[in-house]
Amino acid sequence: MAIHGLLMFLGSFSLVRLLRGAMDFDCIDAHYVYPDGCAAILLGKVFNLPVIVTARGSDINLFPAFRSIRPQIRWTLQRASGVIGVSAALKDAMVALGIARETIKVIGNGVDLARFEPIDSKEAKNHLGIPMDARAIVSVGALTPIKGLQFLIPSLARILPRYPKARLYIVGEGNDRNKLQSLIQELGLEEHVFLVGSKPNEELKFWYSAADLSCLVSAREGWPNVVLESLACGTPVLATPIGGIPEILTSQELGVFVEQNRESIATGLEFALGKQWERSAIASYARRRTWDDVAIEVENYLSSCLEKII
Length: 310
Prior knowledge:
- Helix content is 47%, strand content 14%.
- The protein is of the alpha/beta class.
- Strand 5 (135-140), helix 7 (149-159) and strand 6 (166-171) form a beta-alpha-beta unit.
- The longest helix has 19 residues, at 4-22.
- The radius of gyration is 21 Å and the shape is elongated.
């Protein structure tokens, strides 16, 4: 991992040289500080091009913990002509690494309105084969320990006496599938928790619209798209207050914050399932920020960085 940045630079050098010869471009826009941003800075030096680097999550929240990677991340950020963080939390983390606060621009992600829109709950349940009387809960993400599913699944068991028709649908794949399936069987939740596997992005609107609640109980996040996508479908979110999530869930009318433990999650599930949510208002809130809005902000920032250089 310590030489991934160098290897990416070497692997992309010939292609960038061909592109440079075929067209006149003004800068390199690199997403993910390491290894991508590191490779981009090296390319920028060779081709005399400014580089703008975007931090997206683990590149700042996790990788600096590695002693061989931390200096390369700081080197990359210090030499970039511009730095973007997809959340204010990532900006603070980069400042803690010694990067000047005024050099960092926060540009949060957006949502694709063509893919994420509210669908009638009955229609969505019928499409997915979910019982009409089910209190459906959905969690979209990789089956890895960081996502906290090992806490979410037992939490569902705790609320079944009050919500016997609760059903948890976990959309995603990962190395923990067998462990999670064993946990489901151990708790006797085969009729209540379902690992439905990965689904095409275009299908997710049906899962969100069929659900009473969406859950993301991660230990670490940058700016998770699944939160805004769920809200765009009118579905409230139960989540841990980490990374950029508090910057998305800015009101108690959008969701519920919990800690990553069984008791807190169970309490949050009961509260959320018992609350009357204004789903149309939730959808309207999320749909105010599209990827077109993000693109305009990024373009404006790139232009401002180039103006400073010129």
